[in-house]
Amino acid sequence: MTDLPDSYGRIVATLIRLTGDWNLAEDCAQEAMAAALERWPRDGTPDNPGGWLMTVARNRAVDVLRRSSVEQAKLREVAMLFHPGEQHEIEDDRLRLIFTCCHPALALEARVALTLRTVGGVPTADIARVFLVSESAMTRRITRAKSKITEARIPYRVPSGVALTERLPGVLAVLYLLFTRGYDADGEPAFADEAIRLARLLTGLMPAEPEVAALLALFLLQHSRRHARRDAVGDLVPLDRQDRSRWDHESIAEGRALLERTPVTGPYAIQAHIAAGHGAAGSDWRSIAGWYDQLARIQPTPMVELNRAVAHGYAFGPQSGLALLAGFEGYPAVAIEADLTAKAGDRDRAADLFREAAAVAPSEVERRALLARAAEL
Where is the RNA polymerase sigma-70 region domain positioned along the sequence (predicted)? Predict the structure, then answer.
């Protein structure tokens, strides 16, 4: 059954290319998935599961098209789906679908939702829960995104040349946001898994793009810590207190192997090297601080600067990090100041700062973690 998510995206992508009908493509893919769930446990998994699913979806699409007033050329294309050379076209379809779902004409969250629903086959209810909206509201959001693609005549293709260079960062940003939605303290872990799956897919389809491989490496290295990030009662465990033997060392090895053969050309490669700086034997904070210096030069966002302060505080002493915090306000800055102040030995001041940060923490698990640090001090 592990073929189902990947096959769903293949089927949808191919039928959209052939019919231009997003809803028909999704309906046929869903019917193929339902048929597999019903028949495979009873009859056994076929030798070519992906081909079986595509055939069922194709036959369903042909039935629907025959009953509609669709032009005969479209019907013939679907009916002749498996002619020689078509498999390469099917692989290209998946890349087309990803770039269409991630088109910059759509709002960023709409791109994430549409990618999850159309490429990944994630149920609308699950997407709605992570975005904190009702299922009906998410259905409307996804429908509007599809309508905009049709009305704006957004082309179903992968850009080339300069256009590809301009568009690829937007596609990677969608996957990055999707991973973050799964990796955050109160996130949905399955979304991080889906981001890794899609990053693998994109890496296979675009092997010459170093930032694509770097993004996959970053995801693998970050997600390798997932089993050590919570204690027995579900509370967050800070990185420096995690049991690193519980990290997924196979994912770490895969991520580092990707980095070894990937040149540093952009922010995802730098972030992956930062993640790789945390090893089983400890964290190489001087190396991490150096990478953050590089990242801050090309991506000088507040969050990068705050994380750079943490790295410098651990690499060169808490006063170095506190100096970099000057001028920053709000929850993350206060929490970081509390940690570095505790490291500097001012326990009372640190406890007050942890309680101050807890009062404005964005999630309950973070609030509990901050109050626990205050209680320790």
Answer: 9-68
